[in-house]
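Extended Data, panel c. Modelled sequence:
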Amino acid sequence: KTFINDRLAEAWEDASQRHVKANIVAERAEPYALRTAPHGVLRITAGVDTQDDRLACQVVGWGVGRSWWVLDYVELPGDPAQDAVWAALTDLLNRPIQHDSGATLSVDAVAVDIGGHRTEAVKAWVRSRRVRRPMAIHGAVPNNAPILGKGKLVDVNWRNQYDKRGVHINQVGTVAAKHVLYAMLAADADAQARWAA
């Protein structure tokens, strides 16, 4: 990919992406209000990207067979080195989400990107456990990394030993995740095309 982009100055095309029929997938979009969970949602998770001037949070509802719905996307302005933006994130993630059934659901787990210049601020927020199941993550370097790697301890105690109650950092295999996503989209689009025929 680097050779094709940087040396040949050509656009990289992922082979698995060629099979995704974007127009068929787009036609299946369903209208629903943000911060409300459609009927099929069973669990809710959130992912947070850390930037120097904001936190970008996407809340996703999950259903049977890996079906999913984007329930919210919010960019919280502020330097992640300051407490105010983390307080806003905590408030956002602890607010219940209304389900179509009339029940309310909570965010069950949160993954926060630890890469960039605010690593210690992310670790401090994850360590504070102000939301359910916070997890520090970063993109894996190897292309063959699993989608979610085993957590690695990073906190040490006064004896310079790893603290088992401290922060674990999980590697995320973004290449593997993209391949799974593209395969699901391609298979879903093909199935939809067959049903329409």
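Residues 193-197 have pLDDT under 50 and may be disordered. This feature is highlighted in the accompanying rendering.
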